C-alpha cells in the first residue's frame, strides 16, 4: 500500500508539473531547461515514488530478526526493537531529530525560493521552466520541492539512520548474550541472517536513488547548486558511514558465528562415526554432478598434457 501511495502521489505531482508546463508553454525550451529537458526532475519524481517503500523495507528488514531462526531468545532483543519503534515514530526526545531534519529541509526550500525571487536565477541555472517568468511552473515546482524536502527527505534520513543504529545494537546485544547462532542448513543460505542482506539491499537502493538524482540534476544544468551539494554530501556520509561503521561490524559478528557453527559440527563429526558418515554422504550427493564433470576434465588433462609434452619436440620442429 505504501508503494501504491508513493506512486500515486508521484503521478499526481508529475501531472501537475506537466499541466503547468503546458500552460506556460515550457514543455520544451531551446535554449534552456523545459519540462522534457529536466532529467533531474524526472529522477526525483521517480525516487519519491519508491523512497518511502524502500525505507519501510529497510526498517522491516531490521525488525525481522524477531522471526529469524538465528535468534535463540527473542526477549534479549525485544527492548532494543521497541526502542527502534519509538525512534521511528519520533516519540519523546527522538522527535527532535525528525523536526531538525524538517527544519533543514525547510531552509533548503526557502533558499531555493529566495534565489528565484530575490537572486539571479538566470545566472544560477540559466533559462529554466520554473523561473518567475513562468508562474504556473514556478508554483508547481515549489510544491514539488516542498513534498521532496520537507516530507520525503526527513522521513527517509530519520528512519534510515535510527534503523542502522539499532540494527548494530541488536546484533551486538544478542551476540554478547549468546542468543545468536549460525544455522548452517537454513533455507536462506545465510545461516538465518538473510534479513541483514535484505536490509543492506534496501539501504543501497535508497543511496543509489539519491546519487542518480544528483547526477541527473548535474546533467541537466551542467553544474551543482547548494541543495545538490548538500544532498551529495549527506548521502555519501550515510553510505560510507553506515556501511563501514554498522554493516561491517554486523558482518564480522556473522562471520564469527559461522566459524563457531562449523567448528561445532566438525567436533560432533569427530565424536560420532555415524554422523560423520551422514555428513560425508550429504556432501557427496550435493557435489556429485560437479565432481563428475571435474573428474572427467582432470582425467582428460592427465592423459593429454603428458602426451603433449612428449610430442612437443616433434611439434616444435614441424
What does this molecule look like?
- The protein has 318 residues and is mostly helical.
- The protein has 2 domains: 2-271; 280-318.
- Helix content is 80%, strand content 0%.
- The chain has helices at 2-24, 39-63, 74-89, 95-118, 121-125, 135-176, 194-221, 226-271, 273-317.
Quick overview:
The chain has 318 residues and is mainly alpha-helical. The protein has helices at 2-24, 39-63, 74-89, 95-118, 121-125, 135-176, 194-221, 226-271, 273-317.
The end-to-end span amounts to 74 Å
Largest sheet: none
Shape: elongated
* Annotation field: number of helices: 9
Cα gyration radius (Å): 28 Å
In the residues, how many domains can be counted?
A: 2
The low-confidence runs, each spanning 5 or more residues with pLDDT under 50, are 288-318
Secondary-structure-derived class: mainly alpha
Mean pLDDT: 80
Please give the share of residues in helix. over 70%
Strand percentage? under 5%
Query: How many strands?
Result: 0
Return the string of H and E elements: HHHHHHHHH
Write the layout of secondary structure elements.
Blueprint lengths: L1 H23 L14 H25 L10 H16 L5 H24 L2 H5 L9 H42 L17 H28 L4 H46 L1 H45 L1
Tags for this entry?
mainly alpha; single chain; 318 residues; 80% helix; 2 domains
Amino acid at each position: 500500500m505504501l508503494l501504491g501511495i508513493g506512486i500515486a502521489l508521484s503521478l499526481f505531482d508529475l501531472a501537475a508539473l506537466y499541466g503547468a508546463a503546458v500552460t506556460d508553454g515550457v514543455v520544451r525550451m531551446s535554449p534552456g531547461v523545459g519540462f522534457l529537458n529536466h532529467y533531474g526532475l524526472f529522477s526525483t519524481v521517480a525516487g519519491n515514488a519508491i523512497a518511502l517503500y524502500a525505507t519501510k523495507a529497510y526498517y522491516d528488514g531490521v525488525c525481522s530478526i524477531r522471526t529469524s531462526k538465528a535468534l535463540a531468545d527473542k526477549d534479549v532483543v525485544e527492548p532494543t526493537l521497541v526502542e527502534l519503534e519509538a525512534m521511528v515514530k519520533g516519540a519523546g526526545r527522538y522527535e527532535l531529530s525528525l523536526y531538525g531534519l524538517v527544519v533543514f529541509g525547510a531552509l533548503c526550500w526557502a533558499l531555493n525560493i529566495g534565489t528565484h525571487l530575490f537572486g539571479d536565477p538566470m545566472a544560477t541555472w540559466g533559462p529554466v521552466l520554473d523561473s518567475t517568468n513562468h508562474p504556473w511552473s514556478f508554483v508547481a515546482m515549489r510544491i514539488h520541492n516542498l513534498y521532496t524536502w520537507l516530507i520525503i527527505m526527513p522521513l527517509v534520513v530519520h528512519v534510515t539512520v535510527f534503523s542502522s543504529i539499532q540494527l548494530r545494537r541488536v546484533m551486538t546485544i544478542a551476540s554478547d548474550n549468546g542468543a545468536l547462532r549460525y544455522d548452517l542448513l537454513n533455507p536462506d543460505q545465510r545461516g538465518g541472517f538473510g534479513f541483514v542482506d535484505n536490509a543492506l539491499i534496501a539501504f543501497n537502493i535508497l543511496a543509489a536513488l539519491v546519487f542518480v538524482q544528483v547526477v541527473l540534476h548535474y546533467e541537466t544544468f551542467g553544474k551543482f547548486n547548494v541543495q545538490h551539494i548538500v544532498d551529495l554530501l549527506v548521502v555519501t556520509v550515510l553510505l560510507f558511514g553506515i556501511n563501514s561503521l554498522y554493516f561491517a561490524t554486523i558482518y564480522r559478528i556473522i562471520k564469527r558465528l559461522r566459524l563457531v557453527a562449523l567448528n561445532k559440527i566438525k567436533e560432533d563429526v569427530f565424536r560420532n562415526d555415524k554422523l560423520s558418515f551422514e555428513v560425508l554422504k550429504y556432501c557427496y550427493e550435493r557435489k556429485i554432478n560437479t565432481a563428475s564433470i571435474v573428474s572427467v576434465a582432470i582425467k582428460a588433462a592427465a592423459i593429454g598434457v603428458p602426451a603433449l609434452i612428449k610430442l612437443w619436440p616433434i611439434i616444435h620442429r614441424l
